[in-house]
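Methods — Computational structure assignment.
A single polypeptide chain was analysed. Its primary sequence is given first, followed by the predicted tertiary structure written as C-alpha cells.
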Amino acid sequence: MVEVFAANACAEVKVFVDTAPLMEKPLAAQAGLGWQGKHSNLVSREAGSWFFIGTILTTAPLPTDPAEEDHCGTCRSCLDICPTRAFPAPYRLDARRCISYLTIEHKGHIAREFRKPMGNRIYGCDDCLAVCPWNKFAQACSEAKLVARDDLVAPRLADLLALDDASFRQLFSGSPVKRVGRERFVRNCLIAAGNSRDAALIPIVAARLADASPLVRAMAVWAHAQLAEGVVHDQLRARHLPLENDPDVREEWQAA
C-alpha cells in the first residue's frame, strides 16, 4: 500500500495487474473501459479484446465514468468456435472445459473427452478472443517486454517433449509459461503430439513412458497409442504395465 496526496488530502492506493484475486473484468466494465462479451472477457470498441487490465484501488475522491453498454448484438462467434464447448450459454463459462484453464491451471490428468479438441494447444487457447470482430480495431503492442522471444517463436514439439526440469526452467526463465511447471507443460505437449499424426515423434513419446512423473507417463501412454501401430503399442504395454504402480497410469494403459 502506498499513499498519494489528492486535493490536499492523503489517500491510500493499491495497484493490481493480475496479482490478486480481484474481479477485474466487472470492475473495468463499471469503469467504462468496455463490456464483458458473451465469452465473459472484456471487450473494448477501441482495443478489441487483446489487452491487459490494470487496477488501481484508492480512497481518493475521483470523478466516475458511466459503465459501458453491451455491443455484442446477435454475434455468437466466440461461443461457436470454442473447441471444447466451454460456454453453456452466452456470458457463461464452464472453466472446467476451458482449454486455457486445462493447460495452465489444472494440475491433474486431462479428461479424455478434451484431448482431441485440444489439438496442438499447449499453453492457453484464446480462440474466443481471436474470432471477436471487435479486434479489427486492435493495434499491435509496442511494449518491448511483451514481444515474444526469438527462441520461443514456433519451437519444435520434439524439443519441448525432451525437456527435463532444469532445461524447462532455463528455456522459460522470465516467461509466464514457467509457472505451470515442467510436468504440466510436458503433459500438454504429449497431448499435442498425440494429435499431430507425426510418426517421427513416436520415439520421443516412448521415452516419456518411463518418466519420473506419473502425470507425464499417463499422457505418454495416450499419445503413444494415438501415434503407434497397435502391435507396437501392445509390446510396450506388456513391458511397462507390470512395473507400473500408479493407478492413473495403469488405467491409461488398460484403456489404450
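Note: The mean pLDDT is 91.
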